[in-house]
Amino acid sequence: MSDLFEKIVSLSKRRGFVFQSSEIYGGLAATYDYGPLGAELKRNLTQRWWQAMVYRHENVSGIDASILMHPSVWKASGHVDAFNDPMIDDKTSKNRYRADQLIEDHIERLRKKGKDEDAERVYEALVAALNSENMSQGLYDIIISEEIKSPDSGVADWTDVRQFNLMFATHLGPIQEADNKIYLRPETAQGIFVNFHNVRETARHQIPFGIAQIGKAFRNEIVARQFIFRMREFEQMEMQYFVKPGEQMEAFEAWREKRMQWHVDNGIRAGRLRWHEHEKLAHYADAAWDIQYQFPIGWQEVEGIHSRTDFDLKSHQELSGKKLEYFDQQTQDRYIPYVVETSAGLDRTFLMTLCDAYTEEEVDGDMRSVLKFHPAVAPIKVGILPLVKKHGMPEMAHAVEADLQEHFHTFYDEKGAIGRRYRRMDEVGTPWCVTIDGDSVEDATVTVRDRDSMAQDRIPADNLATYLFDKLRNWKA
C-alpha cells in the first residue's frame, strides 16, 4: 500500500469517514462501516447520481428492488453457472489470489520498469487466455512461464487455477434444504429486469426508457483488499436503458459521454480519469468499457458502461414463461429490447472522491492536509466558529447556525484556537467557515473564509445564505 493511500485510510478513520466493521471484536475482513462524515458523503453522492439519472431524464424511473429474489432469477441470468473468478493458492503462505489480477499486477510492474515490449507480450497472452475455452489452464501457464511470485511469501509455489463462484448462499425459512436455497444478490441489475413490465406500465414509458436503482450487492470475493475498493458487501448505482435492437450503440455512446461528465462535474480531475475497453466481454455483452481512475494503488475501475443486448430479458422470458416483449403501437413491431447499462460502484466512487480531494500543502511554513471536495459533495458545507466563548459571540453564532441549517449541513465549533479550528475544518473538506467576532455583535457582519484560497470576505449576516448559494453555484476547481 502506498504512503499516500495509507494517509487517506488513516484520515478516514480519524475523522469519521470509514470504520472497520465490528472493530471491537477484531473486525470482519473486507467489511466496513461509514461514520458520520462518510454517511454524509455517501448521501451527497447518491443524491447527485439520482438527480442526474432520474430527475434530469423524463424517460428514466427509479425503483428499489428486494435483495432476496427467487433463485430462478440467478439461474436465468447465468450467475449460478458462470459467475466465477479464477482463483489460485500459494502453497507456502496458504493465501488465495485471483489469477488474472496476479498477471495484471505483473504487467504493471513490467511497465514501471520500462519493459513495454514484455508487458505487451504478457498482456496479449492474458487476453488470449481470458477468451480461450480453458481459461484456467491459460492463466496458470502464464503465471508459471513468467515465474510470477506470491506477493506474501515471495515464492512461486502455486496450486492449479480453479473457478470459484462468488455468490453468497442462504436458506429461506427455518429448515436448510436444497429446495429453499436462495442467494444474496450479487448485482442490482436483475431486480430491474424482472420489473421491466411493471415499471413500463405504471410509469407509462415507451422505448427508449431507463430504470435506475441504488442498492446493496454481495460477492464472496477471493481477495477483498485495498480498503473499501473491493468489499464483500458493497453498493451499486445502476441504470438499465431499454432500446430498440439496432439502436443500442447510439445509446451506448451517448451514455458513455454523460457518465464520464458526471464524475468531472463532481470535481474529479479529468486527467485522472480514462476509458478502458474490456479484454473479454461478458456472456451477455456486445460492447463494454470502464471508466477508470488513477488511484494511489494504480488505474482501477469505478464504473462500467455495457451493451447487454437482449440476453437478460430473453433469458427471463424463457425460464419464467412470461412474455417480456415490447409492442410498439406506432410501428406495430414486437421485440425484446436491447439494454445499455451504466453501473457505478458507490463505494469506489466514494474512495475516488476522497483520493482526488486529498491535498497536502505548505501554508506559512506549516503543512496542512485538506480535502478539496466539490462543495456539493462535501459532508459539511459550513463551519460556524465564534472567536471566543463570551461577549455574545456564541449566541450570535448559534443564531447564524440555526438560519443556515435550513439550507446547509453545518458544524458548530467553539473549542481551541481559531487557526486550529480552521485546520480541522480543512481536513474534513468543509468549503467555508463563518467566524463571528466582536465586530459581528456590534455591526451584524461575519467573516467567511474559503477553504481552498483561505481568502476571507466580510459580509452582512443577513446575506450569508445568499452569498453561500452563489459560491456553491459558481464553484470551480
Q: Tags for this entry?
A:
about 475 residues; alpha+beta; BirA Bifunctional Protein, domain 2; Rossmann fold; 7-stranded mixed beta sheet; 23 strands
Give the structure's gist in a few sentences.
By secondary structure, the chain is an alpha+beta fold. It has 16 helices and 23 strands. Among the domains are: 233 residues, BirA Bifunctional Protein, domain 2; 93 residues, Anticodon-binding domain (Rossmann fold), CATH 3.40.50.
The CATH topology annotation of the domain at 3-63 and 183-354 reads as: BirA Bifunctional Protein, domain 2
- CATH class of the domain at 3-63 and 183-354 reads Alpha Beta
- Any guess at the CATH architecture of the domain at 3-63 and 183-354? 2-Layer Sandwich
Inertia-based shape: globular
- Structural category is alpha+beta
CATH homologous superfamily grouping of the domain at 3-63 and 183-354 = Bira Bifunctional Protein, Domain 2
As a percent range, the share of helical residues equals 25-40%
Q: Rounded to an integer, what's the Rg over CA atoms? A: 26 Å
Alpha-carbon distance between the two ends: 28 Å
Strand proportion, as a percent range, falls in 25-35%
Strand order of the largest sheet: 3-9-10-16-13-12-11
Summed up, the helix count is 16
Question: Can you count the beta strands?
Answer: 23
| Average pLDDT number | 93
Low-confidence stretches: none
Largest sheet, described in full?
Answer: 7 strands, mixed
